[in-house]
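Q: Entry one of two.
A:
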Amino acid sequence: MKTMETTLEVEELDWPTYPEIIDSSMHLKSGREAKVCKHRDFAIKISKKDLDKSFYSTYEISSMQNEYEVATFLYENEIAIPKPWGLFNINFRISPETIIKVPSFIMEYISGTRVDELSRVEVKYNKLEEKANKEIERIRKLGVKLNDFGTVNRTWSLKRKKVYFIDFTGWIIN
């Protein structure tokens, strides 16, 4: 399992700068605790913190670690979620002389529309909800306690004809 000790150098992977990722059109979603941004084929979940923060609390890191472990467990059990790539401390250059390490959960980017933003005319909405409810039952049978699994935390991929769960904050494997 990849852990927070892994460090990816911005220059090696051609990551955008931290302000670009947070403030640009790559920004996908902002929740209570994190921002999610797209870069290439990745969705990058970054703790919401000030740019000048040089460290993150044990709670922030363990919360992200838990989310990654839940996502990995679900993916290995063929639940409809993006492939989790791992947890990384990404070095972001915030000025020519300053680099900060930002705990990040990186997963596959799924092109789609959040279920709460779908028009009930665009897709067979009831069929989507039926499929999602079946998936929720499968997750519960695996012993996972779900926290927030509403339509805002699901994406409909027209290309793949599938609903994906995309946020696992607070989910617990029993």
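Q: Entry two of two.
A:
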Amino acid sequence: MKPFFARTRNFAGVPLMAAALLALSASTAAAATADTVPPALRVADEDLVFSARGVGQQHYTCERSAEGFAWRLRGPDALLLGPDGKKSGTHSRGPSWTLLDGSAVTGSVIASVSAAAADAIPWLLLSATSTGKSNRTLSRVAHVQRIDTSGGLPPTDGCDAQHLGAERRVDYRATYNFFAPRLRIGLPVDVSTCDANYALEARSHGGAARSIDEAIQRAGVVCPLR
């Protein structure tokens, strides 16, 4: 992961240096878990920008199927806990992830591997299909990993003609890793450009732009706390 060259200015009451430390923490976590991730779920040429532990439930409904009746996944309902163990966002149907800074990403599954635990939902690799607000933590995310799962599998009974439409919620936990394309070579990641006072600095990197956000985006700078 490339080093951060940041001034310790405050933005929205939070030291921007914290963003650099968060990214460093995420990079350390990635190194610790990389060897345990199956090859089919690994992400090449992208950097880990955020990691969170999902704690919540998988929501199922009893529906008709080709074989008769089956529990069908409706979606997750979980809290996302950041590296400090505090709530950092939510995970919901989509699947989508939304952080407290307003950034969000929705993904589509492109690879699945059976979990290490027999009673756990699979590990997944998802490709981002849409992102939310620009220049925040998840704004550049291209892939999401779901690993280290426990629980969450659908019930094995209770779905039949008499229970059509019934709902079940199953507790689960999982780690979600968010990856974004690596920044262009030779361009320092200066999070001070997230501050409006540094608009000209951002424009000098990004060329002609209609807004501060667009200039920062063209410069290839991630502003996690913007």
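A: Comment on entry two: The two ends are 21 Å apart (CA to CA). The first helix runs from residue 17 to 33.
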